[in-house]
Amino acid sequence: MKGHRGYVFSRAMGGSFIPQRVQNLVLREYAKASGLDYLLAAVEYEMPGCWMVLNGLLEERNQIDGLIFYSSHQLPEKRPDRDFLYSTIGANFNLHLALEQLVFDTPESCLLLEDLIMGRTLAGVPDFGEEEDG
Amino acid sequence: MSFEFFDPPERDWIQTFQNQGYLIFDLEQDLDCIDQTLCEASARYLGQSISPEELYQNTPQWVPIDQLNGFRVALIQALRQPKTIGRALYGCAKHPIHALIGNELAMQRGPNLSIQYPNDPSSLLAIHSDVWSGNSPYELVLWVPLVDCYATKSMYLLPLPDSQSVYQNFSHYQNLSAEAFYAAVADSAQFLTIKRGQGLLFWHGLVHGNRINQEAKTRWSMNIRFKSFLSPYGSKELGETFLPITIRPATRLGYAYRRPT
Hints:
The structure holds 2 protein chains of 2 kinds. Chain A is of the alpha/beta class.
């Protein structure tokens, strides 16, 4: 087992600012309950629209079994960026959302995330506007 | 409100619900799937098979009260199956739900289970409204009894006019304890008579709760929340608490539409 890398935010998400300590507690508890080998979380930079840390994790995906996001609110805003993330999901690299307790292990399974984003966008949840031409 | 576009029984359901904030109706499917799941999980817990009748009617003889919480947790775990239990609960109330909420829905990810022994003070829900603790006011609760429920074996609520009165005068209550709050509004509380085979849909903005079950038998009931997929969410979010179950194609096409360029 190579383990699952945590991924936390240093900026607000979904209209709320969640302290990293809280995000880390949720990730560790989720990994423990799910029987996952937990690798210490990488912290995305605080600049809005910046995905440098996530991109780095995806480049190194052959060295880990998957990622554990704190929540779906950390998904990139732009659809092509999300599509690239989904395309990396497969038998050897999966995506966990700790808060939602959801696991994605195929690109097709990730379509549920697009449904969540659609619902949040149309229902007016803060910080979830799909970008035009995204 | 105009009812021209609603046909019976939708029209009656809507009128009743608008007047009182809740609707009691006959379930549209049986509860066999739920009975079977609960009996199988109970058998695993108890180490021997048990019929639904025996499970529901004589629960304290099988599970001592000091083990009730662990038993309930084991059963709730078994009920967290959206494709079977979620579908069964939705199927029980599909048309009343569509009448009161709409047909493009999000459903709570897992149902809740209440097992309330006679004279047990440990399984109480103090007087409250779910909206006061973060649920969206756009949600309804589907409450399904697995046994006949009445008097203190059932839940109570303050019908819509009485709940609205509480809302309008909340400054009179806000510094009371929950018990004193209940005492202040107890005259308005209605303990609902709902038989097995019936369901209840209620707006969880209504003030509601339960009291010590002073009847002879145990209460078994389940509840789960539904809301319009497209209505506002509270802090119980889409994804974390709710998942979409019936997104319609027109919504997908509309959402995907981009102006020609």
